[in-house]
């Protein structure tokens, strides 16, 4: 079984962008913010075991359980204050295009 390969882009650039956004919002209190902000990562793997292990790999450092929704669909999430971080590992037929 092949391991899931993480393809989330340049981690340093993403972290820097999130910090830049946070600083911008802090410096501009007149700018609207979303009531339920979130960051979502979608695992695109055809094999259910690979999807589960990818969700587990994210859930462990987050300190949260992996949720199983049936049909090979796994997920985990953690709230950081009002901001939610989600990892979603749906089967191919339920994956957004």
Shape: elongated
User: From N to C, what is the helix and strand string?
Assistant: HEHEEE
Terminal Cα span: 24 Å
The amount of helix comes to 25-40%
Brief digest:
The protein has 97 residues and is of the alpha+beta class. It is built from two helices and four strands.
Describe this structure in words.
With 97 residues, the protein is α+β, with helices and mostly antiparallel strands. The protein has one domain. Helix content is 33%, strand content 22%. It contains two helices and four strands. It has helices at 11-27, 48-62, and strands at residues 38-42, 67-68, 74-80, 83-89. A four-stranded mixed β-sheet has the order 1-4-3-2, covered by helices on one side. A hairpin with a 5-residue loop joins β2 (67-68) and β3. The relative contact order is 0.19.
Output the keywords.
33% helix, 2 helices, 22% strand, 4-stranded mixed β-sheet, elongated, 97 residues, alpha+beta
Write the layout of secondary structure elements.
Blueprint: H1 11-27, E1 38-42, H2 48-62, E2 67-68, E3 74-80, E4 83-89
Parallel strand pairs: 1-4
Antiparallel strand pairs: 2-3, 3-4
């Amino acid at each position: 079984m092949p391991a899931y390969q993480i393809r989330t882009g340049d981690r340093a650039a993403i972290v820097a962008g999130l910090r830049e956004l946070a600083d911008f919002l802090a410096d501009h209190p007149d700018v609207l913010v979303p009531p339920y902000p979130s960051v979502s990562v979608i695992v695109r793997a055809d094999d259910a075991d690979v999807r589960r292990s990818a969700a587990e790999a994210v859930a462990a450092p987050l300190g949260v359980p992996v949720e199983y929704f049936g049909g090979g669909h796994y997920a985990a999430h953690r709230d950081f204050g009002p901001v939610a971080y989600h990892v979603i590992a749906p089967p191919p037929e339920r994956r957004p295009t």
